[in-house]
Design goal:
Elements (H helix, E strand, L loop, with lengths): L1 H9 L5 E5 L32 H15 L3 E5 L7 H13 L3 E6 L15 E6 L4 H8 L4 H7 L5 E7 L1 H4 L4 H10 L4 E8 L14 H17 L7 H8 L6
Parallel strand pairs: 1-2, 2-3, 3-4, 4-5, 5-6
Helix pairs in contact: 2-3, 8-9
């Protein structure tokens, strides 16, 4: 697969492409970068055109035809705001041979028919254990997520913040809960990354950052669903000087 991918990239195909298909989100998560003025070079996210219906489907397909990515990440806002358009778009992308990662808060039910779409990978963002997550991501609460992912195979993605990283055994408890769910295929962690110049309580101090990276490395042995390769952890330990 790696050789095939390199062959396609050398002929001009992009390895990956990310498209924000909505400018709106029903959540107001602490630390979200999407509505910060620095997120885009052309003004705030809400200043952009918001396509719907056939216009959205055709515009996404046009971008895919133009850039020919091997992997497409569909994000937002909240992509499930446009679930009707995605019902049309996702099977078409699958037929085109494009692997699609759809990143969602699972604030609404994920259509059952999506479970049979080849090459579709659904990633659900979950910010820690239920008390912390529900406070940050309401109305995408644990109760709603568990109901909305039924019958799917998902990847759980959790962003580690300073508030939770300092609590002993917090992420072992998180992994114990989500590893036991039959819908969960993989679990990923990332470290909270602030915008340049930001000063917020989510930011990990260097000692806490080192501690949590070492902890995650050890937890892989106990929880096979946790996918955090050494290459990724080494990148967190020694990030580039420039973003």
């Amino acid at each position: 697969d790696v050789f095939k991918a390199w062959g396609k990239i050398l002929t001009g195909r992009y390895p990956s492409l990310s498209i924000e298909i909505t400018r709106e989100c029903p959540l107001r998560c602490t630390g979200c970068y999407a509505y910060e003025p620095e997120h885009l070079e052309v003004g705030g996210l809400r200043s952009l055109a918001d396509f719907k219906g056939d216009d959205l489907v055709e515009n996404v397909l046009e971008l895919v035809r133009q850039h020919r990515p091997l992997h497409l990440s569909i994000v937002g806002g909240e992509p499930l705001v446009r679930f009707r358009e995605l019902n049309t778009l996702l099977p078409m992308l699958s037929e085109m041979g494009v692997a699609v990662q759809l990143v969602t808060s699972a604030v609404r039910e994920i259509p059952k028919e999506w479970a049979s779409i080849k090459g579709l990978y659904i990633v659900v963002s979950i910010d820690g254990l239920q008390p912390e997550h529900d406070a940050r991501r309401k109305p995408a609460t644990y109760e709603r997520i568990l109901r909305n992912i039924a019958g799917q195979q998902i990847t759980v993605h959790c962003t580690i913040t300073s508030q939770t990283a300092q609590r002993e055994g917090y992420y072992r408890e998180f992994l114990d809960f989500w590893s036991g769910r039959p819908e969960v295929k993989k679990i990923w962690f990332s470290l909270f990354t602030p915008q340049i110049g930001a000063d917020c309580e989510e930011i990990l101090t260097p000692p806490v950052r080192k501690k949590v990276i070492d902890e995650v490395a050890e937890l892989r042995r106990e929880f096979p669903k946790l996918v955090m390769p050494n290459l990724v952890l080494d990148g967190y330990r020694n990030p580039p000087n420039s973003p």
